[in-house]
Design brief:
Oligomer: single chain
Structural class: alpha/beta
Radius of gyration: 18 Å
Number of strands: 5
Length: about 220
Amino acid sequence: MGLKQVVIIEDYPLFANALCELARRVMPGCVTCTQNHLYDAIEYSKRAHPKLIITDLHLADAHGLHILYTLENYNPNTLIIGLTGDNDLIHAYQRQPGDKPFTILSKRESSEHLQNSITLKLRQKGIIDPHMNAQKSEHTATSTEEFGPSFQLTEKQKKVLKHISAGLSNKEIAKQLSISPETVKTHAKDLYEKLNVKNRTQAANLAKQIIEIFRSSQS
């Protein structure tokens, strides 16, 4: 039997990597692939036949329930889970009559709830052993390790992001890291590009989500 494939469809690289980390905790030994667009993910899934697809419901090329129904059309035997921060979308789906073929989870829920919900659905689908526990890390994440080993950030960028998420100004970050405020600005600009965000507020909010998810996957 081949390795279990997991597809993550998410256009925020840092959040996508965090979901990959989470998938590897609940499905030890799985192979993860990230895609930015729905139709790229569909083409990949035709070849890979994934056991699990986790998708954001607001992508550049599609949004809403259309994403889930399109994925199901090409992956009828795959567990498909949607993520959204739009509670109105979740409520609209829950009000629909008949069976609910998909699981939609709110990004506003705790990371523990997210992990537990995904694990439960994997067990119900028979994808993982009902008696198997999520794999634990050999050590506790600290400092910049909270952003995970696979995130494509330099150590300095991770430190800047950690301080941004803590609410420090550029001058305060410069003092903490013994660098100039201009260097902090340069690191911040590079961070925004890598994280696909527009400003420090978005970067801070995203970083807090990632830290929470990564900590949950370690527990």
